[in-house]
Amino acid sequence: MSSHTRVKKDKEIIGDYETQVKEIRNQLVEQFRCLEQQSESRLQLLQDLQEFFRRKAELQLEYSRGLDKLAERFSGKIRSSREHQHFKKDQNLLSTVNCWYLVLNQTRRESRDHATLSDLYNNNVIFRLAHVGEDVIRLFKKSKDIGVQMHEELVKVTNELYTVMKTYHMYHAESVSAESKLKEAEKQEEKQIGKANEVSTSLMRHDDRPQRRSSVKKMEKMKEKRQAKYSENKLKCTKARNDYLLNLAATNALVAKYYIHDVSDMIDCCDMGYHASLARTLRTYLSAEYSLETSRHEGLDQLEGAVDAMDVRGDKHRVMDMHSQIFCPPTRFDYQPHMGDEVCQVSAQQPVQTELLMRHHQLQSRLGTLKIENEEVRKTLDATMQTLQDMLTVEDFDVSEAFQHSQSTESVKSASSDSYMSKVNVAKRRANQQETEGFYFTKFKEYLNGSNLIVKLQAKHDLLKQTLGEGENNSPVTMLPPTLPPKPGRMRKPRPRSIFNHKLFNGNMEAFIKVLTAPYLAPMWSLCVHSPSILQPPPILHHSHPPSSHMASPSLGLPRPLPRPISTAFGLFSQA
Amino acid sequence: MSSHTRVKKDKEIIGDYETQVKEIRNQLVEQFRCLEQQSESRLQLLQDLQEFFRRKAELQLEYSRGLDKLAERFSGKIRSSREHQHFKKDQNLLSTVNCWYLVLNQTRRESRDHATLSDLYNNNVIFRLAHVGEDVIRLFKKSKDIGVQMHEELVKVTNELYTVMKTYHMYHAESVSAESKLKEAEKQEEKQIGKANEVSTSLMRHDDRPQRRSSVKKMEKMKEKRQAKYSENKLKCTKARNDYLLNLAATNALVAKYYIHDVSDMIDCCDMGYHASLARTLRTYLSAEYSLETSRHEGLDQLEGAVDAMDVRGDKHRVMDMHSQIFCPPTRFDYQPHMGDEVCQVSAQQPVQTELLMRHHQLQSRLGTLKIENEEVRKTLDATMQTLQDMLTVEDFDVSEAFQHSQSTESVKSASSDSYMSKVNVAKRRANQQETEGFYFTKFKEYLNGSNLIVKLQAKHDLLKQTLGEGENNSPVTMLPPTLPPKPGRMRKPRPRSIFNHKLFNGNMEAFIKVLTAPYLAPMWSLCVHSPSILQPPPILHHSHPPSSHMASPSLGLPRPLPRPISTAFGLFSQA
């Protein structure tokens, strides 16, 4: 170092060195402790995870059993019920009941999936975690072995440094001592030479000269000896210093390597595969959870499909099919001629002709008034039904808000506070709905009375008109073809649901009905031809809501407009 | 009817008619019964659904509580743990521990969501079902009222038909009787006329003539009377028949209307809103279930993100940061000149010069051999690590098969039978892995010994080379700049994770490190410049697997190659 630095004493240097080495050794011990602590933390984490999944598996199994019991309770009830026997055949299954069956299916599915989850936790996830734990323990031991080897190397190299430093100190001390001895000799020699010169110039005595010469020689010899000793020691010191400097470089390089790379490598050995194995374990858990979700979603989609396919008309027809005897139109009342009366049609000869003509005119004008009145009632009915329909199909079922997890607070909104379910709101809505419904029924009765009267008068009117117009050549009643009417069940065979739902108004339904009904209905329908507004299916069947609203809510359980003659496929009047 | 049909007697006609009416009335009664039955079925279904959701709400709540208790148990443990205090700050949170926290978060989230589900079942779904039930009862009553009105109309019209038919029978009978009386009168008149003609031609007596004339006149009068009676009755009969025929038409029209439309309308009244309301209820259920699923999925995605972000290097650095005192490189060993020794570098003057030169050459050749040998060991190490890595990152975590629901059978595959978890398979794999790992450690020790030796010899070699080449003008040791070394924790500040994960090799990391390390490391790294293969981070840090494999599995917990100088940011040798 530069000359102005304080010169350290040997003991100080050794002391500093030993402190430095002790600090390193302390760090090495602490590094092992840190590694051990980390392994312990990992083992604790793995143990916690195992305990967690063991308990979660139990929860899943409990939940699964609960769901299974629940599904089984209602499935058993269904199996033993009367309805089930009725609806056993798929084509007879009501769309609403189908939804209920799918709710139960979904419950069974959830039950099975949660049992599977439990199984996977117990027989896969927990095993993996145990294996990761074994690996942590084993790798910690092996890494510590590696670390011990590294530390031994550090101890060895610092010991060597100590040795070469001490050697340098020794040789340098000897070199310094030899140098001072040499210097002392040189000083004495100088003194001797000075004395000799002084003597030779001032006081030269023969007796003294040889004595003095021998002492000078002796002095020179000693100086040479000391010079040789000094050179030898200096070389030894140079070698020792070189060794010290080289070992210093090697030691610093090794210490640097240890701190920069080896300690990190030791930790890497300890970490080997830990993250990968833990990740695979958690991915197993995720795979299980995601799979459960997929399965759950499939089930919910099936149920949603069934809800979409809920079909008020289809269900009505299914029920009527199943009770075809009850809903089958009866044989028509035929004209029964009395005691061989051969007249079997309305007679419009004189003297009744005038009266019939008058009656016909009266009927015509009465019908005109009645139809206008009833048409007004029908319009009110339609509007009321539209209002009811809006109430019945309000989309108030979105509860997703209740599942919003706010990031800041962990609270969730109370589900019962949502707009639909506030008690006041519900009560108001229901009161409103029932009021409208009551009004609808009042109007419907009024409409029914009107249309009943109209249908009777119309029948009489049409018969009179025919009689008065065509004379007595043929009667619409007696000319009915003797063909058998179609059987109710056979004719309205259930169509594939997809067609039923989606092609109701743009499929070939019209043509189908035309073909079906034409031969049987022509005479009967001729009664209605002149008053299509009356004998059309009454309002709840023919509301004039726009087609777009049907498309938007295809199965909301509300009656939909249908081409009028569909119900005639029932077989108008059976003549069997 | 045509003349060849058998003439029915009055009683037979009345009997037939009454049978026919009775059949219709039976049907009407059965129709009501059917409507009632349907309403009862609906009420039963609604009751079952309510009971189902009530019980399911209980299950959800139980499950929710179990999950909450489970999460709380471990969360409490974490809060009170020592590690938590350590890792409380986000930047100190280990990526593995973060996953564990997210597993618990997910559990808490599931707990809250299932509680919400329970709440929605109890306070929304069940209420809706109850309302649907009320509607069913009310609408059945109102529809039945409508039906009663319809039936009364049918009864009225058939009664009327009966009356007009009876009237027709009566008048026809009278007409027939009047006709026969008239015919009898005509026959008698004919007989009288015939008799008169016979008398007038064969035996004409004056006395008889006025007597006969008066009897003929009487006869004629009777005939006229009978004729008038007959005409009157015939007219009455015609009117009655016309009335009968008109009423027949009206009755048939009304019966047809009832069977074709009215009965269907009555059912529609009963159905009003049932499907729509039930659909809305089930959609509420579906909305809740789908929302739970969405929330669940969000949580799982968060966890998956954390698993993806698992970061073995980042965690290592976090641990080392937290224990910076332990891993901070110590002060370097400085050259300590002995007792004012002013020489502070390797001396290459004669007579040691030759020896140093020889030593330098020996070191050079020894290093050459050692490096070749160690490079071979390194290659073996790399290959072994690659094998290990393949074992540790095998993608064996897909358990989705366990959740496949076969449509035909309801069984699911046993989760424990899957390929990963078969016991034999697992044991074999683990034995294989441990064998490879053992081999890796053996080779790593060998490599460590080699590289330790090389680093020491290299340091000496480089110092000698410098000394011999440059003379004694400057020493690399004493010329170290007096700058303070960087503090370990400060320099390797945690970078944003995204950069750390994705931009490790193509970001500006290289430049960053160059800037960081240049001032401090130049002299130290100069020691390594000549042997880059040795002082590179040892194999577990620099495996030469292709970059594509990192991209595919970015965080599998395996060490990844990193630009060598990163660990030097630790602050090479602190000189404080």
Radius of gyration of chain A: 57 Å
User: Which class best fits the helix and strand makeup of chain A?
Assistant: mainly alpha
What is the string of helix and strand elements of chain A?
A: HHHHHHHHHHHHHH
Proportion in helices of chain A: over 70%
> What gross morphology of chain A would you assign?
rod-shaped
Assembly of the depicted chains: homodimer
Describe the 3D structure.
Chains A, B: InterPro entries: AH/BAR_dom_sf, F_BAR_dom, FCH_dom, SLIT-ROBO_RhoGAP. Chains A, B: Keywords: Coiled coil. Chains A, B: This is SLIT-ROBO Rho GTPase activating protein 3. Chains A, B: Pfam families: FCH (PF00611). Two copies of one chain form a homodimer. By secondary structure, chain A is mainly alpha-helical. Among the domains of chain A are: 280 residues, Substrate Binding Domain Of Dnak, Chain:A, Domain 2 (Up-down Bundle); 106 residues. Chain A has 14 helices and no strands. The longest helix of chain A has 108 residues. The radius of gyration of chain A is 57 Å and the shape is rod-shaped. The termini of chain A are far apart. The interface between A and B is large, with 225 and 225 residues.
